[in-house]
Amino acid sequence: MFITRAMRVFIILYEEKNLKSAADKLCLTVPPITRMLKLTEEWLGEQLFILERNRLIPTEAADNVYQQLYPHYSALTQFHHPSAERDFRISSPQAGHSFMADLLAKCQPSLPEKTTIRYAGNMHTDDDIFISLQPAVLLPNFEIFRADQMLELHYISSGEEGWKDKPVLFEHNLDQLPSFRHVLDEMYQCGHNGQTRRIDNAVWLKEAYEHGEGLLFRRPEKATDGSRVLPFILHLSLSVYINTLKRDLRHETFLTCIKKSLNYFQ
């Protein structure tokens, strides 16, 4: 009733930065979205996006419009869907990673009963919490704190085979982090063969590790399963974003647990 279609289309386009994914989210096809965008640009007298195939690059005018429009859009969304306030949404590009599952499992008692954990490459206005290994574009009314997740290198011994001959098991995105490449260099200097093995399924990763197929960086408390601990530490810098418009006691309880579980430094 209060949120116009043009307003919603602009917000979704700005957040998705991709015509196809925005169309899917809006349950529309690309042509009507591009027509609506063109009409909005003509009405404003400003170009809002630079289009490269399906990819959208916001202009400075789009940034300014979004900064002014977002608080009103978010407030109206909450007005339309008051039940959404009862749902607690945590999003992350690493939602399926084992280290994220371990972290959230540790804080599970502090999570509201109605909690949704979803994969998302970018932050969205309906997120309560957004957690990422990589810094993300900060949306209005979100604030950030950073923390360090310390992981030890564990392995399960299988006969005479030593750790230097075992590959390092890892999940996608970790190999793009300077801290991961740095610790691999340290291991190589200590005689490791330098081999890695990417497994993008948390269940298969766990099984491969338990069968002694490789080395794995894990939270220190998981070494109680009889694993051996090697003197190599991986530090993951986590960025945790909090939606200040939705912030309440649920957020504070969860954040307190996160800060206790990690080395909070900002």
CATH names the topology of the largest domain as: D-Maltodextrin-Binding Protein, domain 2
Specify the structural class.
alpha/beta
Unreliable stretches: none
Number of strands: 11
Encode the helix/strand succession as letters. Answer: HHHEEHEHEEEEHEHEEHE
Radius of gyration, whole Å = 22 Å
- Residue-averaged pLDDT, rounded? 85
Overall spatial form: elongated
Family: Belongs to the LysR transcriptional regulatory family.
Keywords: DNA-binding, Transcription, Transcription regulation
Organism: Mixta tenebrionis
GO molecular function: DNA-binding transcription factor activity; transcription cis-regulatory region binding
Keywords:
transcription cis-regulatory region binding; alpha/beta; Arc Repressor Mutant, subunit A; two-stranded antiparallel sheet; D-Maltodextrin-Binding Protein, domain 2; 9-stranded mixed β-sheet; 3 domains; single chain; 266 residues; transcription regulation; elongated; 8 helices
